[in-house]
Design goal:
The complex is a heterodimer of chains A (472) and B (74). Chain A is of the alpha+beta class and 472 residues long. Chain A contains 15 helices and 23 strands. Chain B is mainly beta. The chains are: A alpha+beta (472), B mainly beta (74). The structure holds zinc ion (ZN). Zinc ion binds next to loops of chain B.
Chain lengths: 472, 74
């Protein structure tokens, strides 16, 4: 089930009681960020927020926390809002396997309504604001950015759609942080090796399915648009950019077209990141914006990011877990049961697996470290038995507390790669990684006293049914 | 000209005026590229109250690490 555009999804949220409109006047700072951080503290079923009365603005409209809860994530997939997380995971995994679904092309889009090519001033066009107190400026952090591979522009999947933080650093200038593990870093390097600017397009206010695909760690040559089609179960609608051969999401509110300036680096940051720490200030590439178009009275979508959990964690929880799950299943198709890589974007990953023989679970853990996402994340991998639900942390803690023998089951692998934003990495981008094997030893590993696992009294399943009916 | 609360250069310029007259202005420092709104709390707008851990010395800016490094031209 596809959402027509961003507004269509907001309407669904409203119908489902998952959109809270704040009509009282709020200050751009610190109210917008504070309200969102406060909302994140109120549990995992929170609504999106819609602000329409912002001090100093006449008609700014800002939507936040659009995917910041499990009900909103379920609605993104067109599922009932109370769908349990584990069910969302397995449904996402099922749709992931429908990839690729080719795109549907359109000639025009609603965002063609208003076009600006002269005297662009992003500070006037967009209701920008500060998120965290130490941020170096105002950021776009829920915009998708589209670019192409210059060596192989005709391979569709190598067109990249990604989510990157972008600091607004001038009327028509953005700073971008290209983490080396991410695809945009490859495109920028290709362009700079040629001494050319890299054409890019940025879309703000998109339906959540493309944001989800853009933040999924797909393989380099897999198309995010074709994955968005798979997730929504019908072809994703795109329209061509005007200044470059790039596809844009048809349902976006605002489009910025521009180019990464070859060989330029400019001071950027700090920015309060998903790790719960600020990134430092560093010199990063610059994007010059040449063209803006947007819907009349556009809705500006923004995301509060900071100390977990925030919208970011709901947005990249399931879609980070599923690629790891699929890649591990490629290696061990009969064993892997489920993967929970929801903690700080997969810096911690929990894998539920069957074990074929002694030592097997440690091999599963090491495979996780060598998956594309694992190369930049997966600092701590916890492996649990098939009967342990990796999304149920009390069960995971039970496995750790009873199955793990530190002498045998804690494995540290030195000197591996990690994303440089990990505040514990030293030097930035390097770390040791750890596997905790919390599975039951099997032959020839004969350690421990595990021959008498606790069973349930007879008839528990029947009583579960009976009592749940009585409790309705 | 305004003083940048972060690097204390005096070259900051107004880049945006509030659509509602005189509510606020957005300022941009061309030295450290800090951006702020005049209606923000004084822990952001006042150079004396800006958090010391986040202060920037203009002399350090040219030495900031390049992320990513600029590659050799092919
Ligand atoms: Zn400054």
């Amino acid at each position: 089930m596809a959402y027509k555009d961003f507004r269509d999804f907001l309407n669904t949220l409203e119908k489902e009681g998952q959109l809270l409109t704040i009509s009282d006047e709020v200050k751009p700072e610190p109210d917008l960020a504070a309200a969102n951080k406060a909302l994140s503290n109120l549990g995992d079923k929170t609504p999106a927020l819609f602000f329409n009365n912002i001090y100093g603005y006449t008609d700014a409209r800002i939507a936040m926390n659009v995917m910041g809860s499990w009900p909103n994530h379920a609605l993104m997939m067109g599922m009932p809002k109370n769908t349990p997380l584990k069910e969302q995971f397995f449904e996402f995994a099922r749709r992931y396997e429908q990839f690729p679904v080719p795109v549907k092309r359109e000639e025009t889009a609603p965002f063609h309504e208003v076009e600006i090519t002269e005297d662009i001033n992003l500070f006037d066009i967009l209701p920008l604001f500060r998120l965290n107190q130490g941020d170096g400026g105002f950021y776009l952090d829920k915009a998708i950015l589209v670019s192409r591979d210059l060596d192989d522009p005709d391979t569709y999947g190598k067109q990249n759609v990604g989510l990157y933080r972008m600091q607004v650093k001038g009327k028509n200038r953005l700073g971008i942080q290209p983490v080396p593990q991410h695809d945009i870093a490859i495109h920028i390097r290709q362009a700079e090796e040629r001494g050319e600017n890299l054409k890019v397009a940025i879309a703000l206010g998109c339906e959540p399915v493309i944001t989800t695909a853009a933040s999924t760690p797909l393989l380099y040559d897999q198309s995010e648009y074709e994955m968005a089609g798979a997730i929504q179960g019908e072809p994703y609608r795109v329209v061509k950019a005007k200044d470059a051969d790039l596809d844009l999401p048809w349902g976006a509110e605002v489009i910025l077209e521009g180019e990464v300036l070859a060989g330029e680096r400019e001071y950027e940051g700090p920015f309060g990141e998903f790790t719960g720490h600020y990134s430092g200030g560093r010199a990063m590439p610059v994007i010059q914006i040449n063209r803006v178009y947007h819907r009349k009275q556009p809705i500006f979508e923004h995301l509060y990011i900071g100390m977990p959990w925030t919208e970011t964690d709901y947005m990249i929880g399931v879609n980070t877990s599923v690629p790891l799950f699929q890649q591990l299943k490629d290696a061990f198709p009969n064993e892997i049961v489920a993967v929970n890589a929801m903690y700080t974007h997969g810096l911690v990953a929990i894998i539920s697996t069957k074990t074929r023989y002694g030592g097997f679970a440690k091999a599963v853990g090491m495979r996780a470290l060598t998956t594309p996402h694992g190369l930049g994340y997966c600092k701590l991998v916890i492996v649990v038995d098939e009967g342990v639900d990796p999304f149920n942390l009390p069960q995971v803690m039970w496995a750790l507390s009873t199955k793990l023998h530190p002498k045998h089951d804690a494995v540290i692998v030195p000197g591996l790669s990690i994303l440089p934003l990990d505040p514990g990495s030293d030097p930035a981008g390097m770390t040791h990684k750890m596997i905790l094997d919390a599975t039951t030893p099997v032959a020839p590993d004969i350690r421990g006293h595990y021959s008498q696992p606790l069973d349930s009294p007879l008839g528990v399943a029947e009583w579960e049914k009976k009592l749940s009916q009585m409790l309705r | 000209m305004h003083i940048c609360p972060r690097c204390e250069s005096n070259r900051s310029e107004v880049v945006s005026h509030s659509p509602v007259k005189d509510a606020w202005e957005v300022l941009l420092c061309p030295v450290c590229l800090f951006t702020w709104r005049t209606s923000e709390p004084d822990s952001i707008t006042d150079p004396a109250k800006y958090k010391s851990a986040f202060k920037v010395n203009p002399k350090d800016i040219p030495n900031a690490a390049h992320v990513p490094p600029i590659p050799e031209r092919l």
